[in-house]
Design goal:
The protein is of the alpha+beta class. The protein is built from 11 helices and 14 strands. The protein folds into 3 domains: 46 residues, Uridine Diphospho-n-acetylenolpyruvylglucosamine Reductase, domain 2 (2-Layer Sandwich), CATH 3.30.43.10; 115 residues, 2-Layer Sandwich (Uridine Diphospho-n-acetylenolpyruvylglucosamine Reductase, domain 3), CATH 3.30.465; 105 residues, 2-Layer Sandwich (Enolase-like, domain 1), CATH 3.30.390. The longest helix has 22 residues. The structure holds flavin-adenine dinucleotide (FAD). Flavin-adenine dinucleotide (FAD) binds next to strand 2, helix 7 and strand 10.
Length: 285
Amino acid sequence: MIPASFDYVRAVSVRDALNALAAGDGTKILAGGHSLLPMMRFRLAQPPRLVDVSDLAELRGVVEHRRGVRIGATTTYRDLLDSALLRERFPLVVECTESIGDLQVRNRGTVGGSLAHADPASDLPAVMLALDATFNLRSKRGKRSVRAREFFLGPFATALAEDEMLIDVLLPPTPRGAGTAYVSQDQAASGYSLAGAATVIARTRKTVSHAAVALTGVGDVSRLIGSTDQLVGTKGEPEVIGRAAAGSVEGIEITGDIHASAEYRRHLATVIVRRAIQKALERAH
Ligand SMILES: Cc1cc2nc3c(=O)[nH]c(=O)nc-3n(C[C@H](O)[C@H](O)[C@H](O)COP(=O)(O)OP(=O)(O)OC[C@H]3O[C@@H](n4cnc5c(N)ncnc54)[C@H](O)[C@@H]3O)c2cc1C
């Protein structure tokens, strides 16, 4: 389908983009366009004006920040894959990004677009939850920071207000010696996750001292799972991992659709979580 008509402006600065959003007329940010433009073509979204931020160099890139990293909102998946800093400090981000979409999607799709769109089957939100990222938001009214754990509110719903823009993402350092893993079963055509798990596990003298596992693709929103708390204080014995994985889907209303039934996804999620924990444990030192 052809989208409804709309105006287009290319922002030359963040301030420019924020001014456009402040008009309160339904103006939407356009970044890589891989989610917004299909929605407009299906007329699921009909914004009267798009403000294109994809050229804003000030929002693009991965840099060191207080022993962690800062990732600008217009950083593309390709930039993530090319970042030596991320490969060294946050291999979880790179491992996840490798499974996203196809070449075109990875070349144009942005971190800000993925997180703001909050598709319940997208990959990066789970990584941000497991890494305890913080998102910096800005509007003409001011700035605020929101932890990933408070940002994703539901399917395609986030803490962003209509006049707010995601500026960058801060990743704090992972615990010393932590092992991480992203394991997903992708829907073959798009690469979206039928179930995906992002895992960060640290050990102190062979005992698990930190475990964070976030799940995507199975319910209405990516979420941290509570059942993996029981790993802390154990040596990560197979039966403990099995129990944590089995409990990972408790309390989640599992999605069933043309790609996978709810029953299949439920089973898949427990297998994915178990494998992700095992992998992260093997990588922890
Ligand atoms: C064929 C195909 C396969 C895909 N496969 C995967 C996959 O395997 N895994 C996956 O996770 N995703 C997948 N995607 C989605 C892809 O990652 C999207 O591009 C991404 O989710 C959105 O990023 P974008 O830069 O294209 O955002 P856009 O489409 O430009 O914007 C998306 C939404 O975010 C808003 N927005 C963008 N930037 C900001 C900002 N800085 N602040 C506030 N709001 C903002 C826009 O207004 C819009 O509402 C796929 C997409 C396609 C088309």
